[in-house]
Amino acid sequence: MTAKDYGVQKGLPKQTMSICPECKKLLTATLSEKDGKVCIEKVCPEHGSFSDIYWSDAELFLKAERFAYDGIGLKNPTDKSISSKNVSVNIGGKEFDLLTCTALANIDLTNRCNMNCPICFANANQAGYVYEPDYDTIVEMLKMLRSERPIKCTAVQFSGGEPTIHPRFTDLIKKAKELGFAQVQAATNGIKFAKDFELLKASQEAGLNTIYLSFDGVSDEIYIQARDRKMLDIKLKVLENLRKLEKPPSVVLVPTIVRGVNDKQIGDIINFALENSDIIRAVNFQPVAFTGRITKEELSKGRFTLPDLIYEEGKQTGYTTKDDWFPVPVVAPISKLASLMLGVNKVTFTTHPHCGIATYLFRDDKGNITPMTRFIDAEKLSKGFYAVAEVAERAKFKKLLVYRILKMVRGCIHEDKMPEGMTMKKFMKFMRLIVSDKSKETLAEFSWGMIMIGGMHFQDSYNYDVERVRRCGVHYATPDLRVIPFCAYNGGPEYRAEIESKFSVPLDEWKARHGDENC
C-alpha cells in the first residue's frame, strides 16, 4: 500500500479517464474547481460535451485525497490466463488493472423480485428473462472469492433482485460460513423477513451476520414515490421480528437518496436509527445514480453528491460538521499494520477516497449525540498507524511495537473532550466489546451506543471516473468466475446485462417450468 503512487496526480485541476454517456467511448476528462465545487468535464467527438458535478465541495474533495492509498492488487487464481496478473476490467476497449482487494463481494442470487422499484439497479422483473444461478454454481463463485490472492475475500453480500426468494437462500448462507466468510450479508427489501419469521430465524441460525435493509424514509409517502407502494410497516416488522431472536443479525439501513423525494428525511432516518440502535448498527446512504438517459437540466437538478449528504445531515440534525467526516481509506493504515504484525494479509480498505465517506455517532448515557471525531483525532490516528506500519516493515521483532501502538492510540484520544460520564477506561472497555462483537446482553451494562453514518455514491456514465473503478472494493462475482467492480457492473460498460443474458433463461420458459406466481 503506497500513498505516493496514487492515481495520475493529486490536487485540482487534474485529468482522469471517463466515458461518453451516449456511446460509452473512453474519453479524457478534466476535474476542476468551479464556484467551490468539483466538476467533471469531457468531450465526445460524436456526441459533444458533458459536464457534471463530481463533488459539491472542493475543500472536502481535497481533504479526502489526503487519505488516498493504492492497494496490493487482486488476483483470481481460477482464471489460469491471468494467474500471474492483477484482475482487470475492460472499459471502452482498454484493460485497466484493479488495485484494491475485494472488501465486499456481491453475488446476485436472482433478478426476480417481489417488488418493482423504479430506482432499482438490477431492473428486476423487466428484463424478459430470469437470472438465477443454481446452488452449485453459486458455491463455485463463493470458493473463487475465498481463493483470491493476495487477500482472501472475507465478506459476501447476497443481493438481487430479492435474494430471500432464492429457493436455497438459507443453504447458501450456511455454505458461505462453512467456507470461512466472516461476514455474510443479505441486501433485502425486508418483505420476506417481515412476513416469515421462520425464514428469518433459519437465516440467523445458518449464520447471517448483517441485513442490509432498504430504508428510504420514515413516512409511507416516500415509499409510494420511490417504491410504488407503502413499505414502512414492513421495515418496522423486520425490526420487531429481529428482537424476538436471541442473537439477531445486525441491521444496516440503506436509503437511496433522490433529491426532491427523500433528501429532507436524512435527519429523520438517522434519528430513527439512533432510536433503534439495539438492532441498527449503521446507516449507509446511497445517492441515486442516473443509469438511463437524462437531460442536462434534469442532471443538474437531480445530482446529489456526498458533500450534499454531509451538508443536509448537519442542517437537519446539528450532530456534525463537515470536519467530522472522513473517506473510507482513513482506516487503510490500520489494516496494513495488522497484516505486518500478524504476518497474514488482511483486507485493506484502499478504496478511492471519493467513493465513500463516514462518521461515527456516539450516544452517551443521557442520550446526547457526539461524533467520535470530537474526542478522537481521526487524521492523527490514521497517519500514526501509517507511520508505525512503515517502521514495522523494517522491524525484526514486530511484537515490540505493541507498546508504541498503544501509546500512539492513547495520544489520539482526548479524555477531556469526551461526553460527560465517559472516561478513557470506560471507553476502551466499550470499544473492546464492540470490536469483539459481544452479545447485546454483555453490552447492556452500558447505556451508551454507537452507530456509523456513511455514504456511498455509485457512479453513472455522467460522473464516471476510471480511477474510482480501479480502486473499487465492492466487487461482483459472476457464474463464469470473474470479478467485476460494482460501478462497471451496474453503469458505464454495464456488465450486468451481458452476465445476466448469458446465464439466464427466457421468461416464458421460466414460467412454463415454475408458474407465473414465482416470477
Counted by DSSP, the helix tally is 19
Arithmetic mean of pLDDT: 90
Q: What's the count of strands?
A: 21
Whole-Å distance between the termini?
Answer: 46 Å
Which class best fits the helix and strand makeup?
alpha/beta
* Biggest sheet details: 13 strands, mixed
Q: Percent of residues in helical segments?
A: 25-40%
What integer value in Å does the Rg equal? 23 Å
Strand content: 15-25%
Low-confidence stretches: 2-6
Shape: globular
Essential attributes:
21 strands; 519 residues; four-stranded antiparallel β-sheet; globular; 13-stranded mixed β-sheet; disordered N terminus; alpha/beta; 33% helix
What is the topology?
Blueprint: E1 14-19, E2 26-34, E3 37-44, E4 48-55, H1 58-65, E5 88-91, E6 94-97, E7 104-108, E8 129-131, H2 135-146, E9 155-159, H3 169-178, E10 183-188, H4 191-195, H5 197-206, E11 210-214, H6 220-227, H7 232-242, E12 250-254, E13 256-257, H8 266-275, E14 280-287, H9 296-302, H10 306-317, E15 326-327, H11 332-342, E16 356-363, E17 369-371, H12 378-394, H13 402-411, H14 424-435, H15 440-443, E18 449-456, H16 466-470, E19 474-477, E20 483-485, H17 486-490, H18 495-502, E21 504-506, H19 507-514
Parallel strand pairs: 7-9, 7-19, 9-10, 10-11, 11-12, 12-14, 13-14, 14-18
Antiparallel strand pairs: 1-2, 2-3, 3-4, 5-6, 8-21, 15-16, 16-17, 16-18, 19-20
Helix pairs in contact: 2-3, 3-5, 8-10, 11-12, 12-13
Describe the structure in your own words.
The protein has 19 helices and 21 strands. The model is unreliable at 2-6 (pLDDT under 50). The longest helix is centred in the last third of the chain and has 17 residues, at 378-394. The strands form four sheets. Strands 7, 9, 10, 11, 12, 13, 14, 15, 16, 17, 18, 19 and 20 form a 13-stranded mixed β-sheet that branches. A four-stranded antiparallel β-sheet has the order 1-2-3-4. Strands 5-6 form a two-stranded antiparallel sheet. The radius of gyration is 23 Å and the shape is globular. Helix content is 33%, strand content 21%. A hairpin with a 2-residue loop joins strand 5 and strand 6. It has 519 residues and is α/β, with parallel strands linked by helices. Helix 2 (135-146) runs parallel beside helix 3 (169-178). It has helices spanning 58-65, 135-146, 169-178, 191-195, 197-206, 220-227, 232-242, 266-275, 296-302, 306-317, 332-342, 378-394, 402-411, 424-435, 440-443, 466-470, 486-490, 495-502, 507-514; strands at residues 14-19, 26-34, 37-44, 48-55, 88-91, 94-97, 104-108, 129-131, 155-159, 183-188, 210-214, 250-254, 256-257, 280-287, 326-327, 356-363, 369-371, 449-456, 474-477, 483-485, 504-506.
